Amino acid sequence: MKPETRAACEAAMYAIARANALIDEEAKAAIALDSPPDLVRYYADLREQGEGLRASVAPFAALEKDLSYQYIPLAFDAAGIQNIKLPGYGLVALNRRWSCSMLSKARGFEYLRRNGQAGMIIETVPAPTLGAWAREETEERGVEPPDDIFKTSIARYVSLTGEKKPSPQDGGK
After folding, report:
1. Does the residue 163 lie in any domain?
2. Between 113 and which of 67, 76, 107, 118 could a Cys-Cys bridge form, CB atoms 3.0 to 4.6 Å apart?
3. Contact 44, 165 (CB under 8 A)
4. pLDDT tens profile 66-125
5. What single-letter DSSP state applies at residue 93?
């Protein structure tokens, strides 16, 4: 990485660290006011800034992934190497990560059982599905899931919908 690029990255990291410190101070002050409108306005502003920061970092993350999964493996292939030792970086090795998913859970489980791999089968219920069931049981049927079998919790959160506040780029209009 060129010195100018490294310096720009370090300046961005410093700016983000400084922003985090300011955000922490402002959040504590907004929470101390205990005013729902002020808290909502602060939350909306924070969320908007967070979206901007995530969008700013997304191309960096995408390039990092492309280099690791695409460009460097292709360069290693072209050079006919599996690893290389670089002073200051250490041993850089080309590895492989396997993944596998079932196109049909029933057929996949049956195949594993037939081939002596039944021990790896674990029945699961996705957490969002179980949460939706618990909500339905409690709110619609009036029956809470037994607490000796299920751990049920409810987390309240804020959802912002509707109009966005004017941005300085729009002239505040």
Report:
1. no
2. 118
3. yes
4. 999 999 999 999 999 999 998 988 999 998 888 888 999 899 999 999 999 999 999 888
5. E
Q: In this structure, is residue 17 part of a structural domain?
A: yes
Residue with the bigger pLDDT between 156 and 120: it is 120
- The total domain count for the chain is 1
The alpha-helical segments, DSSP class H, found in the chain are: 3-33, 36-66, 72-79, 105-114, 127-135
Q: Is residue 27 within 8 Å of residue 41, measured between CB atoms? A: no
Structural domain boundaries, residue 12: 3-99
Residue 171 has pLDDT above 60, yes or no: no
Q: Is residue 37 part of a domain?
A: yes
Contacts of 53 (CB under 8 A, 6+ apart): 16
Distance CA 42, CA 26 (A): 9
Residue 49: name the closest of 9, 22, 10 by CA. 22
Residue 5 has pLDDT above 80, yes or no: yes
Which residues, at least 6 apart from 173, have a Cβ–Cβ distance to it below 8 Å? 166
Distance CA 69, CA 65 (A): 6
Show the 3-state SS of 40-53: HHHHHHHHHHHHHH
The reported pLDDT for the residue numbered 69 is: 92
| Residue 141 tokens, joined | 């049927």
